[in-house]
Amino acid sequence: MTTSQASSRTTTEGTVYTVTGGDWDEVVESAAKADDERIIVNMGPQHPSTHGVLRLILEIDGETVQEARCGIGYLHTGIEKNLEFRSWTQGTTFVTRMDYLTPFFNEAAYCLGVEKLLGIEDQIPDRATVLRVLLMELNRISSHLVCVATGGMELGATTIMIYGFRDRELVLDLFEMITGLRMNHAFIRPGGLAQDLPPGAVDRIREFITTMRKNLPEYDKLATGNPIFKARMQDVGYLDLAGCMALGATGPVLRSAGLPHDLRRTDPYCGYETYDFEVPTADTCDAYGRFLIRLEEMRQSLRIVEQCLDRLEPGPVMVADKKIAWPAQLALGPDGLGNSLDHIRNIMGTSMEALIHHFKLVTEGFRVPPGQTYTALESPKGELGVHVVSDGGTRPFRVHFRDPSFTNLQAMAAMCEGGQVADVIVAVASIDPVMGGVDR
Amino acid sequence: MSDEQNTNSGQVPAPVDRSGEVIGVRKGMFGANNGGDTSGYGGLVRTVTLPGATSRPYGGWFDEVADELEGALEEQDLLPSEAIEKTVVDRGELTFHIAREHLPRVARTLRDDPALRFELCTGVSGVHYLGDKGRELHAVYHLRSLTHGRLIRLEVSTPDSDPHIPSLVEVYPTNDWHERETYDFFGLVFDGHPALTRIMMPDDWQGFPQRKDYPLGGIAVEYKGAQIPAPDQRRSYS
């Protein structure tokens, strides 16, 4: 820019400067004189291929991305702050809405943390733990399906999008039957589950496994060997192992760099050490490798779901301690699902203690001994960690979610800079960020 | 009263109570603090105590990590007792409370020492202990070692009057966004961070929303004829 200082004149009061706005003509002139074609492009926050409300700020020179930055926070809803004003059990209703594609993982991570603070990990009934694993693995399938589907759509491969959402719908139907809701279930509670499986659920899940085993090869046929798909994905969004470690990337991004790090294996929870499954890896460090890993993980999840069904045994799904177990005795009445009339008859007519427990738990909640804990589990996106602090009250003192989407999204710049604009979309899709989890 | 100690100095008090660290006092039972509590529990006073320092042996691999860390710090001519304020083992988790000026050195040692090798930092979480006078703001780091399959916690505290902690971005680049988030919500200033700006809240936001003295906000809503107060105005159980 030319030197455009404000004009000044000297008066008896001192120097007076006349300040006016910049001259637009001068800006245009200097931009025309500059020989580079650097422009800054705002992609999003409302753009179908940026996964919700992600804003990408790209400095591009022709078709090459020189610098890439993320603008996030458009979906910040203050969930962590809100948790501090609800009881421990009510917390599940909030956390399930964070990463809305992986509700069961959020709930499970939170509940495992609360249970660890309470010191009741050993008292969680086996059936509840097995069902948690089952729900989480079904959830892994639905989350990966959305990733594959939207990733395909962003490449222009609409068929794979239709297929992905078709199959995800099957999983959501199962969720709806089991929990009553397609998303945002609040089904996993501190101490166990809200409810047992409804009748017929096991058969429906087995049917689903059969259907899914038939449908999964379709993705291979459509995409895995497809030369256009490969050309768009291979060597795009490159991040090697050193980059992953420095940037804290976990999940499929880390495994695509060849390290078989999966918390289900390296730091097992919910009895994962007793299940038989593989941790797929790739050594390509690129978007294509991550795609293949997600496909394989869906197959492995089906295996785990099958093993869960085999080891399901009748029993309670909530901890026996009446001072913690939420008195959710739901039954289908004439006006829909609600408190069971038997339970109401019991607390109102027969058992004074049951009434007291019900009243205390619903109004006050339970107290959690002071302390802090960090629990982590392997969500479809990577390490989902929860730092829970209690001050001994009926409400969480502080809950912090280390969301894998948030951390992995930092790698966007490293993956995109120096590449093509069109590859930014592929790279971001291969990270699979969900803004509900990023912004919380 | 133990919660009033060291109110005037910005110094970090040495934890004296071996049985635990008092961070506040709870009075009454039903959250009524303006004389309306006729339940008979109004006179109830309980101190809130976090788990205090643990003495050796810590058990399991905890001793090994502590030994290695202390040894590695000694090699760098840094007295372990100066850097590590206390060590807490609670609920099967190992926590080192680190003096804030030594945090980068300790983190680098934890990352690089072959016997420690905590390669992965899972970010930082802020906690605001309003009642912990002189050390209100805590930054909590969880470090994971993929080599050894271990997880430890580092905790650093600062007073509200001087909320500065050295940044760990140089050691763990992943902490870039995490430190921005903690700054955004708690006002903890990470010295040496390359661009410490707000990340979630709008750039011109006033205040730090997740501090305990920052209200949640909200409005009363009508439900079946009754006014339901905003969540932070509702009855809480103390």
UniProtKB/TrEMBL annotation, chain A:
Residues 155-440 form the NADH-quinone oxidoreductase subunit D domain. Belongs to the complex I 49 kDa subunit family. Gene3D superfamilies: Cytochrome-c3 Hydrogenase, chain B. It comes from Streptomyces salyersiae. It comes from the Bacteria. The keyword Coiled coil does not apply. This is NADH-quinone oxidoreductase subunit D. NDH-1 shuttles electrons from NADH, via FMN and iron-sulfur (Fe-S) centers, to quinones in the respiratory chain. The immediate electron acceptor for the enzyme in this species is believed to be a menaquinone. Couples the redox reaction to proton translocation (for every two electrons transferred, four hydrogen ions are translocated across the cytoplasmic membrane), and thus conserves the redox energy in a proton gradient. It catalyses: a quinone + NADH + 5 H(+)(in) = a quinol + NAD(+) + 4 H(+)(out). It is found in: Cell membrane. Keywords: Cell membrane, Membrane, NAD, Quinone, Translocase, Transport. Its main location: membrane.
UniProtKB/TrEMBL annotation, chain B:
It comes from the Bacteria. Keywords: Cell membrane, Membrane, NAD, Oxidoreductase, Quinone, Translocase, Transport. Coiled coil: none annotated. GO terms for molecular function: NADH dehydrogenase (quinone) (non-electrogenic) activity. Residues 97-218 form the NADH:ubiquinone oxidoreductase 30kDa subunit domain. It catalyses: a quinone + NADH + 5 H(+)(in) = a quinol + NAD(+) + 4 H(+)(out). Pfam families: Complex1_30kDa. It is a peripheral membrane protein. InterPro entries: NADH_DH_suC, NADH_quin_OxRdtase_su_C/D-like, NADH_UbQ_OxRdtase_30kDa_su. It is an enzyme of class 7 (translocase). It is found in: Cell membrane. NDH-1 is composed of 14 different subunits. Subunits NuoB, C, D, E, F, and G constitute the peripheral sector of the complex. NDH-1 shuttles electrons from NADH, via FMN and iron-sulfur (Fe-S) centers, to quinones in the respiratory chain. The immediate electron acceptor for the enzyme in this species is believed to be a menaquinone. Couples the redox reaction to proton translocation (for every two electrons transferred, four hydrogen ions are translocated across the cytoplasmic membrane), and thus conserves the redox energy in a proton gradient. This is NADH-quinone oxidoreductase subunit C. The gene is nuoC.
